[in-house]
Amino acid sequence: MIPVPKGFRFAASKAAFKREGRYDLAVMLSDTPAVAAGVFTTNRFQAAPVLQCIETLASRERVRGVVANSGQANACTGEQGLVNCRVSLEMAAGALGVDMDELLPASTGVIGQHIKLDRWRAALPELEGSLGKVGPMEFTRAIMTTDKFPKLAWATIRHNGQVARVLGMAKGAGMICPNMATMLGFIACDADVEPGLWRDMLRRAVERSFNRITVDGDTSTNDCVLALANGTSGLRIDPTTEPDGRQALQTALSEVCEALAYMIVQDAEGGTKVVRIHIVGAKDDRQAELAARAVGNSPLVKTALFGRDANWGRIVAAVGRSGAEFNPDHVAMAIGGITIFEGGAPKVGDIDGLLAAHMDQRDISIEVSLGDGPGEYTLLASDLTVEYIKINADYRT
Are 144 and 171 within 8 A, CB to CB? Predict the structure, then answer.
């Protein structure tokens, strides 16, 4: 059974925004006002629900819940898109018995399509009637698009004899390359935490998780991670006198986000590999990140991994064009823990024979040392497959 944090209820309905007979509109509602935090896409074309969330969080520290839908992104829809977003929130708020500005919206789907307000309105009775009768699994299924499986993760915090829970739900399989991917993430927590601390904790957790994955190098217009903490458990995290409590909550939140981030790459559209790219020895972390992203987003590297081909030359070439600063003579590279390139030349002979077993695995490890600097960075990436092309060639149909 999924451990739901205290004071949270869920609702879901089948609005047929894109397909009949599946959940595509859902709510996560706190029984009491909850401290709210959000991290959003850096794409300059931010969707209407993202803009609405940013506006709400700029003026409010606490909200009651999240309203999420799949099948219609409401992105690049102009002023009318913002109006429709607010109308949809007003309708949902009326059904749930809360104020419109106590709800945060999130949407995913095809860019450029307006919200179907008639279907939204028709779905409200089912949404209202299901409140508290469905759980996080139904909520998560409602936000899926090309996802093959629902993504949920949870953790427990024990501090000063009290217990609190963190529950995370996410969707995402393609158009994934966050700087805050198409991905949506939602966190429910019943710890009592100050608004400023909660927002800082979410930023830290996202930076170590969702912002370190890539499927195809595309950052969506709708990406967001929204986190609510309602304090219902009674476990209070004091921002000044409880370092152990702060660390426990940060660890739990980060672990949940990291687990969800892994699932997104695992579920990459058409993907067969999860590639952990670890860059060390860089001049600084930024230089390491440049190298990691060049490898993780390289179509040549990704297709070689799909073919289970240990074509290390493609990896070296990607590092070389990444823009990272390093001395090529000081670079070493390992796949599956076996050093295969060092000092500008191959290190071993029968590379294919040595790495065949590792390349057959779901999880592939690549480590590149750029020298003896302190910088390092880890990125999770998928391979690039024929199935990915099929999915995205036919996405709108």
Answer: yes
N-terminal to C-terminal alpha carbon distance within the chain = 36
Amino acid in position 269? E
| Among 104, 136, 145, CA closest to 227 | 104
Instruction: Tokens for 96, please give them.
Output: 């749930």
How confident is the model over 155-173, as pLDDT tens digits? 999 988 899 999 999 998 6
Cα angle 69-381-202, degrees, rounded to a multiple of 5: 55
How far apart are alpha carbons 262 and 241 in whole angstroms?
33
Residues annotated as catalytic are 182
Kindly tell me the burial class for residue 362, based on how many C-beta atoms sit within 10 Å of its own C-beta (0-12, 13-18, 19 or more).
exposed
Q: What angle do CA 338, 344, 347 make, to 5 degrees?
A: 30
Measured in whole angstroms, how far is the alpha carbon of residue 47 from the centre of its chain?
Answer: 17
- Bridge partner residues of 107 (DSSP): 69
Q: How far apart are CA 120 and CA 106, in angstroms?
A: 14
Q: Give the distance from CA 227 to its chain's centroid.
A: 12
What are the tokens at 32? 């009491």
**3-state DSSP assignment of residue 30:** strand
Cβ-contact 264, 184 below 8 angstroms: no
Amino acid at 99: D
Rounded Cα distance between 137 and 120, Å, is 21
pLDDT at 242 over 90: no
pLDDT, one tens digit per residue, over 254-302 is: 999 999 999 999 987 778 899 999 999 999 999 999 999 999 999 999 9
